[in-house]
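We emphasize that the prediction below concerns an isolated chain of 264 residues; any contacts that depend on oligomerization or on bound cofactors are therefore not represented. The input was used exactly as deposited, without trimming of termini.
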Amino acid sequence: MSVTRVLRSVLAELFFALALPVVLLAIWWIASSGSTDPLWPSLKAILKTFPDTWTWDRITHDVVPSMARLGIGYLLALVCGVALGTAIGLSRGLRALTEPTLEFFRAIPPPLLVPVVALFIGYTGSTSKVIVIMIGCIWPILLNTIEGVRGLDEVLTDTARSYRMRPQTRLRQILRGSSPQVAAGARQALSIGVIVMVISELYGANSGLGADIVQFQRAFAYAQTWTGIIVLGLIGVVLSVIYRIVEHYALAWYRGLRQADRGA
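Result of the prediction step, given as a token string:
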């Protein structure tokens, strides 16, 4: 592929990625222009307060701890979800035993667990917030892992068992075969994790994005409140891009397999 074609492809992707946000921002700018409603400040006023609100000190004091809690909770959910999902997916008896319990806890919204966890661990500190984020993120990963393992070709698993492959080799093949389904659950969990991160910081937190937004709201600083919402949206976009890059390289083998099947 020539350099010109690559450049055209990149420019086309940038155009389609930025076209809708630019249009929405233009509509917001026009619709809010000249607004005197304190609850609905103009986009110009919001952007004007942005540099003074989100200084480097606030980023290191609030954004970085929030991202650290999200990262730890998400990674714990990923490890626990894949491990438990693989075990449950491989055992029909274990699925029958755990399915009612999993359905019960899955139906409970993670934000409702914030005060419950805080009763046992406390509002202060990061432990309770990490646990809540982990609980919120684990369900999509766990359930998708179970379905991914269950959906594997039984002939392959029976063949591996018949040839007495080492457990490590069998497990590696199982994880590889179920990885597309796991990746779908992990992506859902990342979006849920951002939401739960903010909600967990609304209760007794002295740092974090959620705590900042609540403080702005209580001080009737609505322009600053809107800047916090924008920061959350930007964080979601950045995390989505990072995840897509990791997924692109991790599942390169899967895309190649599908392309080969189409060619056949």
